[in-house]
């Protein structure tokens, strides 16, 4: 039993690494499926570039949008900001808000960068895209020291119907593949360098020590886990109380519930301050001495959520 708990604890501590590894495997599998099943280069001078660049960048853009869509930190900042723009910059800290937005965007870029790296290392999409370029400088670079037929048949190189000799076609394909892989490795090195420098800069500017920062991260993880489970349990109790009151046709028993202002305070994005020994907006709220315990006198959700305004 102790060995099982040790293994479980190890996987829980490494869940970020496991998550990124799983994402990388999905990216590689998705790229192979696109390359083998749906991608067929038209081998047409007017279509190659648009077709190849769409398969190269299109999934990356979709993954970026999905990363932003599923970011709870983004929605925590954005929800309600149209009615109260100050929610984006609590306490007027615009620099902190921009830093958080940059962190959210950086996290959403992980999957798109993985896709671009895998796609460039494979080279299939890049070959199709660059073979459709009609720029004289690019064509001169590809067809240097080759016959005029190379210029005419460049768009047909990714396909088997090219009129070039096998050696010429193979040379061009190897050139395209080498360029694509160089771009792929350059993107990997650049991403790793930016990630390292960003981590170093963040840790260097940290207001707390490494161990306290580690504890803060652990606390935030546990608070989120407990909040999810506790909110489900509490919602079940509230639903059961309301249904029981409705079906038994009797007054509902008193049920303690946070008011709207309390929800607003704990939903704000919290940044650590040395003057406050709090690790989240929830902890800061529960340790306040002037908390308001009275419930809301009117509903605050609109009809889009199934609740009418009073």
From TrEMBL:
The chain crosses the membrane at residues 18-37, 49-70, 100-121, 182-201. It comes from the Eukaryota. It is a multi-pass membrane protein. The keyword Protein biosynthesis does not apply. Keywords: Ion channel, Ion transport, Membrane, Transmembrane, Transmembrane helix, Transport. Pfam families: Ca_hom_mod. InterPro entries: CALHM. One of its GO terms (cellular component) is plasma membrane. Its main location: membrane. The keyword Ion transport applies. GO terms for biological process: ATP export. It is found in: Membrane. One of its GO terms (molecular function) is monoatomic cation channel activity. PANTHER family: CALCIUM HOMEOSTASIS MODULATOR PROTEIN, CALCIUM HOMEOSTASIS MODULATOR PROTEIN 5. Belongs to the CALHM family. This is Calcium homeostasis modulator family member 5, tandem duplicate 1.
């Amino acid at each position: 039993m102790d060995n099982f708990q040790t293994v479980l604890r190890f996987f829980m501590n490494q869940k970020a690494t496991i998550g990124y590894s799983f994402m990388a495997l999905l990216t590689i599998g998705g790229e192979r499926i696109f390359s083998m099943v749906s991608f067929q280069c038209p081998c047409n001078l007017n279509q190659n570039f648009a077709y190849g660049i769409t398969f190269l960048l299109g999934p990356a853009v979709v993954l970026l949008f999905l990363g932003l869509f599923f970011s709870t930190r983004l929605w925590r900042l954005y929800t309600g900001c149209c009615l109260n723009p100050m929610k984006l910059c609590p306490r007027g800290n615009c620099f902190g808000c921009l830093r958080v937005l940059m962190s959210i965007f950086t996290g959403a870029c992980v999957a798109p960068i993985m896709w671009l790296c895998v796609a460039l290392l494979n080279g299939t999409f890049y070959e199709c895209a660059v073979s459709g370029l009609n720029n004289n400088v690019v064509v001169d670079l590809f067809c240097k020291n080759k016959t005029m037929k190379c210029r005419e048949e460049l768009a047909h190189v990714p396909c088997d119907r090219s009129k070039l000799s096998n050696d010429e076609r193979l040379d061009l394909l190897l050139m395209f593949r080498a360029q694509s892989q160089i771009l792929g490795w350059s993107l990997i090195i650049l991403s790793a360098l930016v990630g390292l420098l960003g981590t170093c800069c963040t840790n260097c500017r940290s207001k707390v020590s490494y161990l306290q920062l580690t504890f803060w991260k652990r606390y935030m993880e546990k608070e989120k886990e407990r909040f999810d489970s506790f909110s489900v349990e509490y919602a079940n109790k509230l639903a059961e109380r309301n249904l029981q009151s409705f079906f038994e046709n009797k007054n509902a028993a008193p049920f303690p519930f946070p008011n709207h202002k309390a929800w607003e305070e704990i939903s704000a994005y919290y940044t650590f301050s040395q003057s406050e020994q709090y690790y989240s907006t929830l902890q800061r709220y529960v340790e306040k001495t002037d908390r308001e315990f009275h419930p809301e006198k009117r509903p605050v959700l609109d009809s889009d959520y199934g609740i009418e305004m009073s």
